Amino acid sequence: MTDVPEPVRKCASLLKGTKSDTEKFAALFMVTKLVKGKDCNAAGKKLLFEAIGFPFLKKLLVSKDLPNDCPPLVYKSVALSILTCFCQEEELATHKDIIDAIPTLLEIVEQADDEDYEDNLIVVSEAYSCLKSIASHEPGQQALLATGAIPKMSQIYSAQSFQTDEALHLIVLLVKQFGVVSWPEDPTAFHALIQRIALDMETDDTERKYELCRILADILITCRREIVINSLEGQIWPESLFKGCGDILKAKIGPKQRDPALHLIATTLQVLGIQWAFMDEQKTFFLQLLQLGAIEVRMQMDEKKLETTFKQAELLTCCFSILEHCIEYMATDQLDLEPKEKQTTYTALKGAFNQVLAVLTRVSQDKIRESTNPKDKKFVFAIVKVLSAWLAQETTAMRPAIYKLLPFMLKVANESFQELKTWRAGTREGEPPIDVLRIMLPALCHFAVEEDARRVLFTHKQDEVLLESLEFYFSIAHWKRPPIPRAERLKRMNEPDPVPTPEQQAEMKVARSAIVALCNILMNFTVLEPKKAEDGPTFANLLKFVVENLPELKDTPDNLVIHGNLAVLGLLLLKQQSKKVKQNDFSICRYIQATIRFLWDAYNIDESNDPTALVVSIAYKGYWSDLSELWFLGMQTMCGVLPLVPWLSEFALESGWAEGIVKTLKKVKIGTLPANVKSAYEDFLSQLVDVNGDVQAVLKKADALRVCRNHRMMDLGKKLFGD
């Protein structure tokens, strides 16, 4: 009590001695003067808060039963003026009584347009000040979220009420804290808010335009993306953002304006995808984006001290994100560019990535590479990520420098992968870490066929990490229902099977694409490093993983491409490790059955409009661009495996596949069988005849003679019927 100023102590005693509300209210005018004075410290405010008693302040805020000598608004104004001062102290701002008053404060700001408040807008201002102070501390933030403050503030801003910027700043403060959880499942409030801000940003020509860019980026990044994307019909805010950002790109602006604009563009691309850049069905905006992103990267990374570059991490990360989206889109070959545009684009990208490479090389040799500062680590991850996106498309340039830098890139990528694994195994709080290794996989597909790069990969045991990554992503793609505790099994027996949540489905989609890229790399390793594939422990473990897990994979359309990749990877490994395969190994038997199913189901006649035409089956048709080469490689590799593991031929026979091929080809019209399909089937059947004495009789019985004559299968005919 000694550190409480004397006037404050006197006032507190006076308040405690009051016998009626009228006396206490009169004393409040003295409190108002004291709490705003520089002598009233935290201890003094606490003493006054306890002396007044919160129930009395709340009564002034909400009760209609007050003395008639003052309008109710005056009581409210005095109470809020005092509360605002109290809320500046953390101990009071987080006090249970003040937290409980949040709904009352929200009600006041929601009624800002009511006639009652028109003459005393200071009441609304004070209520906002209280909310702002409360929102500065974790208990207040949690309470504001729980009372639906974000949708309410969104409604206030959308309706353009008085002091709406205060509402907007509160929203930004809360969404930055809570991310996706900030928004309810119903996206109405989100759309209304973004529409209002986007329209303001589009039409404003002052510096506020750029402040709104930053606010839009902060809010957009927290949205429930799947829900927002699926409810965009009829929404015009994407167009407002497109026009507003387009105007900025055309204007002469400095860094103060350019930075928030780039931040907003990067975030919008993240939420809406690259198609947003083509809203006017022209390529101008896209090319401007690409140029601006590339120039900014070059400028910010050009021969500066690493500390200076790292200070620009946030801006550069936005530029990287823009470039990644642009590069990914260009790789789809949907962009029709004139020769001059192609040259300009390539020159801009090459200039930017030469600079990225130079900076990353310096990072790899500097003490900053060991930094444990999360911001520094995140930025290094972002540099490796954007360079990997470029290397996935640019397969020839900068090779010596890349090979030199590759060990460091792998170290960073592997570290990020381990962080993601740890995050998934733990409580999964906050945003998941980005797996840079997954982003790097398309580039590693190219490195896998380059001898110098492959040497680096094996020297650094990257094959082991890739197997670990395959196991990790398979565990996500191969979703299983959560186990039910034994005590509840009987009770929940009739429950419908659970399905993955939208978030889990999105994770599974990402995992499937990672598995395809991983299989691609590992197939190249197996073919190009036969000795390692034959003797290496990693490759033995890889084969074990494939044969044990492929038969377990659910037979769904989404899994077809990974089924094919794992089946063919298994065949390639089986060919190299044939000496170690034990006859009738149960897991190999199940694996071969799953592989035969993939190869057998690709072609048929039953689903053709013409009963004499062989067609790709309906199940495979939508994925055939990803499966066609795999199928032919699978058939070819099966031919290579049969002489080495002849007992596998029993499965082709017992399953009815060999006989089925002949029966199907018998119905195919002469001259219509594609040459490559004919070769694949003929080589396979010929190989079966060579390794298994029982095959001849089965094929002859199925009328192989007619098939050989109709489709000119000379080699198979000679094996079955002689010259």
The SS-based structural class is mainly alpha
| Number of strand elements | 2
- Unreliably modeled segments: none
Count up the helices.
40
Outline the biggest β-sheet.
2 strands, antiparallel
How much is the average pLDDT?
A: 90
Radius of gyration: 34 Å
Which percent range describes the beta-strand content?
Answer: under 5%
Strand order of the largest sheet: 1-2
Helix content: 55-70%
This entry's quaternary arrangement is single chain
Report the principal-axis shape: elongated
CA-to-CA gap between the ends?
Answer: 115 Å
Short recap of the structure:
Belongs to the neurochondrin family. It holds the Pfam family Neurochondrin. Helix content is 70%, strand content 1%.
Describe it.
- There is one protein chain.
- This protein has 723 residues and is an all-alpha fold.
- Among the domains are: 195-281, no CATH class; 288-333 and 340-460, no CATH class; 604-616 and 651-722, no CATH class.
- The chain has 40 helices and 2 strands.
- Strands 1-2 form a two-stranded antiparallel ribbon.
- The longest helix has 27 residues, at 399-425.
- The mean pLDDT is 90.
- This is Neurochondrin homolog.
- It comes from Drosophila mauritiana (Fruit fly).
